[in-house]
Amino acid sequence: MTDTSSALPDGWLPEGTVIQGEEHVRGYVAKNNRPRVAASADVYTLACERIAYVMDNHDRVAVSFSGGKDSTAVLNIALQVAHSDPRFERHLPLRVVHFDEEAIPIETEEYVRRVAQRPDVALEWYCLPVKHRNACSRRHPYWWPWAPEDQERWCRPLPPEAITSHPAFPVWPPSARMSIPQFNGPLCPPPHTTAMLMGIRAQESRIRAMAVRRRPIDNYIVPYGEGLTAQGNIWKAYPIYDWRTEDVWAAARVHSWDYNRAYDLMEMAGVTPYQQRCSPAVGEEPLQKLHMYAQCFPDVWARMAERVPGVGAAYRYARTELYGFLAKPPKPDGMTWPDFITHYLSKHDPRAQPQIAERIREAIARHYRQTTHPILPKSPHPATGLNWNFLLNLAMRGDFKKRRQEVTQLMDATAAAYWRKYTQELAQILTAGTGAELGHPRALPSDPYALIPAEYAHQERP
Q1: DSSP line for 98-127
Q2: Of the candidates 82, 48, 42, the residue with the CA atom closest to the CA atom of residue 62
Q3: How far is CA 119 from the centre of its chain?
Q4: From the Swiss-Prot or TrEMBL record, what is one GO molecular function term (predicted)?
Q5: The overall pTM is greater than 0.70
Q6: Residue 3 located in a structural domain
Q7: Is 5 within the bounds of a domain?
Q8: Are residues 373 and 432 in the same domain?
Q9: Each residue's pLDDT tens digit in the chain (462 positions)?
C-alpha cells in the first residue's frame, strides 16, 4: 500500500485540522434530505401568513426589490398584508430597497419607476458602485456598477431618482467599496430589528432548498450574518420559498399585478420561464444565460460588451470547459489532484486567488473533520459530498458567494447508491495503482468495501 501521508501540499489542509480516526459517517441523503410534505393551505395564503408574522415580530420590514418576478410577488403580498389590518399600518408606506445594477434592461428601469410612484411605497433607488462578482474573466474578478471612473462606459444613463451617495458607503478607493450584502448592515442600523423580505425560492437551486430545510420552525427566517456589517438586528425572510415559477405567474395573473415587461420580450424570444432573468448574468451561476441578453436586450448588450471585462468571451464559451461547465479538463497522468487544482487556481487574478484557495481549504477541512476516507476524482463521498471534480470546479470558476456546496451532490440518489459508486471507484484506483494522485494525507484503506456502514453493507461485493 502506498503511503500518501505527505501528499497534500502545504496549505491545502488548514492548520489545526484533525483528521478523524473513528468513523461515524452516514449517507447525507438518509439523515438530512427531508421529504416534501403537504401544506395546510395554498402557497399564496401561507406567504400572507408568513409576512404577517414577520411584520408582527420585527420593528421594521423592507422589501429587497430587484424588479424581477420573485421580488414582485413579495412586494405585492407585503403591500396586501400591510393594508389588511390596522396593526400593520406602522409599516406603511412600505420601505422598498432597490439596487440598480446598471447592466439591466430598460424595461426594468421603467417598471421600478412605476413602483416608486405608488403612494404606499417608499422606494430607495441606489445607484452605487457596489462590488459585484464578474465570472466572465479570471483576470478581472469584480466590476462596479455606476463606478464614477467608468462614467463614459455606463450601460444606461443615470436614473433621475438615483441615490448616488451614502455616509456609510466608501466610493474611494475602489478596493474599499462594499458588496450589497455588506451594505445592508448600514442600511438597517440598530437598535431597531429589521426583516428584509426577499424573493428567494427553493426551486431555483439546491443551495436555496437546503437553506430552508435546516430549521423545522420559522425555516424561512434567517439571521443576516453576511458581510460582517450587520449587528445582530437584521433577518432575511423568504415568504415565497416554496413557490414554483408557475405560482409566481399565476398570482400575477389572478391579482392583476403590474410586472416587468422585460419578461414579455424574453417570452417572445422563446426563452423558457425557468431561464428568464432580468439582473446582469455575469455571476458564476447566471453566466449560462448570458446569451439571452444579446438576444432580448440588444441596446444594453451593446454597451455591456464594452463595460464588463470578458463578456465577449463568456458569450461564446460560457457553457464549455473553459468556464468550468459540462466536461471537465482531464488531469494529466502522474500529476496529483492537489497540483492540478493549484494549476487552475494560478490562472486567476492574484487578488482573487486567496479567496478561492480558502474556499477550497474549507471544503477539504470539512471533509476530514467527518471522515478519514480519501477524496476521489468523480464519486462524491457519501457523508460529505466532496470529490476532486467539485474542487476543480471551484478552482476554475471560483465560488465568491459560497453558493456551491458539496453536499448538494448527494440529492439525486439513495445513500446506498452513493456508497456503491464511491467504493467501486476507490477499488478501481487501488487496482490501477494510482492512489498517490489522490493526495490523501494517510495510507489508503486496503479494502474499500469495508468502509460501507453496516446499514448499507447488505449489498453484494463484486
Answers
A1: EE--SSS-HHHHHHHHHHHT-TTEEEEEE-
A2: 82
A3: 34
A4: transferase activity
A5: yes
A6: no
A7: no
A8: yes
A9: 333 334 455 566 655 555 554 444 333 343 444 455 666 789 999 999 999 999 999 999 999 999 999 999 999 999 999 999 999 999 999 999 999 999 999 999 999 999 999 999 999 999 999 999 998 998 899 999 999 999 999 999 999 999 999 999 999 999 999 999 999 999 999 999 999 999 999 877 656 666 666 665 678 999 887 555 778 899 999 999 999 999 999 999 999 999 999 999 999 999 999 889 888 889 887 888 888 888 999 999 999 989 999 999 999 988 887 787 777 889 999 999 999 999 999 999 998 899 999 999 999 999 999 999 999 999 999 999 999 999 999 999 888 877 788 888 887 788 999 999 999 999 999 999 999 999 999 999 999 999 999 888 765 455
The total number of structural domains that make up the chain: 3
Q: Do 263 and 127 share a domain, yes or no?
A: yes
Same domain, yes or no: 318 and 343: no
Same domain, 309 and 341: no
**196 and 78 in a common domain:** yes
The H or E element spanning position 95 is strand 94-99
Does any domain span residue 146? yes
Domain that holds residue 314: 286-323
